[in-house]
Write a structure and sequence with these properties.
By secondary structure, this protein is an all-beta fold. Helix content is 0%, strand content 19%. 33% of the residues are buried.
Length: 171
């Protein structure tokens, strides 16, 4: 498996019954759309290659059972639409400081995230419905950011669990 460079579209789409963790090695530089769409049964962590630049559309849509923290590697600059939509089990979301764009519905309907959401300083666009319907966030923090141009339509609508202040920086 040390020679695998890409996981193509729909490679594991609709698979179920997996147990344990999903570990994508650093040899992988591309995860295509729908690669793990609707996979469930995992009961461990998700480790994404440190060489992925873009998490493609619906790559992990509706994956369930993962535990622990979802860490977006520092190599990731873009999280496409629906990448992690309707995922369940993660207890924390840690976005990469190098992420520039968060696509439409990228994390919509993720439940029980259970931690503060920190939007890094390099994010320039938070697209429509990006975090729509998420539950469990205990807070929301925007870093001082002079590149964030848009928080799009319903980006955080119907999120529940927030506590404390919401401060949107002017820069």
């Amino acid at each position: 498996l040390e020679n695998i460079k890409s996981i193509d579209a729909e490679a594991f789409s609709g698979c179920y019954g997996f147990t344990g963790s999903l570990e994508i090695p650093d040899t992988v530089i591309s995860i295509d759309k729908l690669a793990f769409y609707n996979c469930y049964g995992f009961n461990g962590t998700l480790l994404i290659s440190n060489n992925i630049k873009i998490i493609k559309r619906s790559a992990f849509y509706n994956c369930s059972g993962f535990i622990g923290q979802l860490t977006i590697p520092s190599s990731v600059i873009s999280i496409d639409e629906y990448s992690f939509s309707e995922c369940s089990g993660f207890r924390k979301l840690d976005l990469s400081v190098n992420t520039v764009s968060i696509g439409k519905d990228a994390f919509s309907f993720c439940i029980n995230l259970g931690s503060k959401l920190y939007i890094p300083s390099n994010v320039s666009v938070i697209s429509d419905y990006a975090f729509y319907g998420c539950t469990g966030f205990t807070g929301l923090s925007f870093s001082n950011n002079n590149v964030l141009a848009s928080i799009s339509k319903r980006a955080f609508s119907f999120c529940s669990g927030f506590k404390g202040e919401l401060i949107i920086p002017d820069s």
